[in-house]
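Fig. S4 source data, part A: sequence.
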Amino acid sequence: MKELLRQISDFLRNSFLILLVLISAVFGIYRLVNLQIIEASEAGKQKEIKAVYTQVIPATRGEIVDCNGAPIVSNKIGYNLIIEKAYFPTDNREGNAVIYRIVSLLKETGYGWNDTIPVSRTQPYSFERNRDNDVKELKQNLNLNSYATAENCIDKLISDYEIDDPEYTDEERRIIAGIRYEMLLRHFSMSNVFYLSNDIDLRTVTRIKELRLTMNGVNIVEEAIRTVENGDVIPHEIGYVGPIYSQEEYHQLLTNGHEDYALSDTVGKSGLELACEPVLRGINGKKEITVINGDVASVAVTEEAVGGQTIQLTVNSGLQADLQTLLEEHCEWLRETQKECKNANCGAIVLLDTKDNAVLSMATLPTYNLAELLEDYNAVAEQENSPLVNRATDGLYRPGSTFKPITATAGLDSGVISGSTKFDCETNYRYIDMIFHCTGKHHEINVTRALTVSCNIFFYELSTRLGLDRLLDYERMYGLGAPLGLESGDSGGYLACPETFEQLNETWYVGELLQAAIGQSEVQVTPLQMAVVASTIANKGNRYRPHLIDSYWDNAHTQMLSEKEPELVQTVAQNNAESVYGYIREGMIGAAQTAMPASYDLNSLGIDVAIKTGTPQRTKTRTDSFVIGFAPAENPEVAFCAMVEDGKYAKYMVKGILEAYAKQYPDSQIGRAVRRQARSAAS
């Protein structure tokens, strides 16, 4: 029995020891697995580096179309060559090799690349002229002293980016250095791709794609590229787009509230492209790039881009072409037939819709095609007679006798004269100790007749009774002396007064008042301003803000989003507008009925037209020719101003202006009248 108990006891003890060993072994195995697998896995996870970057998806820019929806500037799908940080070598020398390969390919195919560093392309290096701000920015970006030379800047780039491979020539080092600086300037990063070259043709795209395996980071993207569809239509007002050229320009955009701009963006630079930048630009989309341990793991679009709005203008492309031709042919005729007009090379025509001063056409001479300007800016800019100046909106001229309706308004509305008031014109007029002259001897004459025959002495006498301050008040009410607020911008000119003379370092004499009253002295206006004067008279003193934009549409131009409403900015005649403008209108109708050669005779149009001509002196030997007016005289549809520098007979263009309008708007009063006259003449 004792032996049995002992055996049982030994068995239990041995079993316990075996169980203990097994438990220890299992625990040891567990610890080993935990250390080698689980902890190793955790350690691996700790070494994993993950980053998410946000990249912009550019929105398609809105188009600009004419009043009939015909595109003036639009977009095409094109190919842009970019470099992406996520795939670009981190090693400088490898990156330089990629840049060298892609530039070599671009050179072979005739394409350029983005390089705006203000340093000459060849040795000895020098800073480019008229780029002081860019040079200053270059030195700051490279942490160089202000006295650093162009050579120092290139050497610094070569050193910083290790562009010292002996296989590169000096020219190749300069090219790589320029592109490296451009990448720095454009904040090249995971979030900002670098646009190396734009609008690449399909053949070159194919070659680049074939060689992509040897050019890490180089890629082709399909994007909307700005194109000019009709570059002859108001190119000055349309303007153009371009890249952000400097940090200063970039920070200015940010200051103006455009926080989502990138240095690689294309933005409006002038005209409506600049003025309407926020509307045209649209809203950029976004995509997220996830990078794990240096490799791109995923790319996902998080916000779709929304295209910019399409802007529909008030301008009629056909009418614009006809008036531009009319202006050019008139100047050519003057040069060929009028010996004193051999320099008649410049002028302008502005045609407005009287109901709201919508600009129907705005011709200027000389002009340019917008596509040609973008192709070779300097070639256009260096042409004779400054074609980049828009004489319709920014040319400043004395208006001459076209100013007299303003003086007449001041006299009639203030009560200084009435419609029956007469002054005696005997050719010469004495004021204090000065003698002023008229072009004729009109005897006793009232305001209506004075406008018809353009009597200077009537308005000399009226100006002395008005006084300078009252005359200036009416000039300003008509919109002179300040910009009118055209969307693309316009000049304000200035008025003849002591303050203006002081600014010009001239002496103001009391007799300047008389000259100012007939549009001489130092009154300076634009053709646009004088067209608005004509429209204001047509509207019996109601002056509307001129405008180029008719409406805003969605990007596809299928849905109108908003429409420009007429904007009344001033009512000129406060006392008896009907009477005031009745006298003025009759005087201008009389001026239109004066004899002209049959080809230009306004009496043959079948409607009454109201005009006022002017022959202002530019200098003692140079004279311009002006005409303003509106039609039909009793129920006006359009108002206009035409001007020729160093020319004459601007009034000969009026019939052509109205016939061109009739062709484009056959159902208008003018259109129906012209058709009736044509049928009558044919029969």
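Fig. S4 source data, part B ends here. The longest strand covers residues 71-83.
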